Amino acid sequence: MFPKQSLVVLLILLSGVLVRADGPDVPSSGPVVLAQRQVSRYLSKLADLHCTETVTQQKLNAKGHADSTERSQFDYLIMMSGSNESFQLNESRIETPDAKHKQVSMPMLTTNGMTTLLLVFHPYYSDAFSFEEGPEQVVQNKATIPIHFAHISGRRTPAALALRGREFPLELKGTAWLDKASGEVIQADASLEHDMSDVGLRSLEIHVEYKAENVGSETWTLPSKAVVDVTTPKQHWRNTHVFEGYKSFSTDAQQDPNYKVRPDAPAQSTDQPQPKEQQ
User: Is 278 among the domain residues?
Assistant: First the structure.
């Protein structure tokens, strides 16, 4: 059994570069194609946003009750550089100054990037998955089209298990519920397509929820919650990520309109109005 502190589940695209994939022609319409377009718009939105992320890490016993719990709070943002055809994503967490959490002696599971599970629809990854449309369902009081996806063996995957300095690709299967009207992902579930007990991972369950958030004068569908459940031959962990308080870098900065800046102006005292947010 590997050391518990070395178990990290992540979406590796957050530290890698994505480029447009060369693949077969896709139809010009349908829910999957609509989702692909929405995901590209979604990426451009994420780069302008930051929020508060609260993470609850739990070590569970055989009855599913928490033996150990650790809570942390972070200023969270995803930084993007490049264009929609060639770009790089980086996930940033900075612990908030007033964060209060109890440190536990037992190492806990680390999970990163789970809110970007919807990137199975991105053109870079979509040709690595098969998609099957299900009958219409109501999710979060919205009419949705469930899309069942499954990884195609031998092709790229957005998820990995980090263990002892190595990354083991995770082949995922699951369902994403798309808003029937817009194609936006409202909810997504995923699990392992194949057993990985040979490297100590018995099961992986990912559940992500997205909801409408008012950001400035716009309403965007953004991650609200991600739950990751992992079992190994001897351990069971559950991490819950909650995202709230979204703000936009482009709309949060404010300055007193009566405050004038002149090239020859003398140095201002420290009590002058300052922007609320700075990049």
Answer: no
